[in-house]
Amino acid sequence: MSGECILIIDDSQEMASHLGEQLLPAFGFRTIQATNGQTGLQIIREQKPDLVMLDLNLPRMTGLDVLQALTAEALDVPVILMTGYGSEKSAIDAFRLGIKDYLVKPFTVEEVLEIIDRALLETRLRHDKERLIVQLRRAEADTRRQLSELNLFLSAGKELLMLKQADAILQYCLSMALRLTNAEMSAIWLPDPETDKLLAYMHGDEVQRRPEFDLPANAMLIGGVYQTGLPFHDAVFSGEGLQLLPGLMARAALLVPLTLRQKVVGVLGVTNKIAPQAFSEREQLMLASLADYTAIALHNAALGQAYESGPANRPLDMFDTQTVMTVSHDLRAPLNSIVGFVDMLSQTTPLNEQQELFLRHIADSAERMMRLVDSLLDLARLDSGLPEARQLCNLTAILADVTMDLRGKALANEIQLVVDTGPDLRPVEGNAARLTQAISNLVDNALKFSPAGGTVRITLTCEGKTMQVRVSDQGRGIDEQYLPHIFDRFFRIENDPNVGGFGLGLTLARSITEAHGGRVTVESRVGQGSTFVMHLPAYMGSELLPSARSASARSASA
Question: Does the pTM of the predicted model rise above 0.85?
Answer without folding.
Answer: no
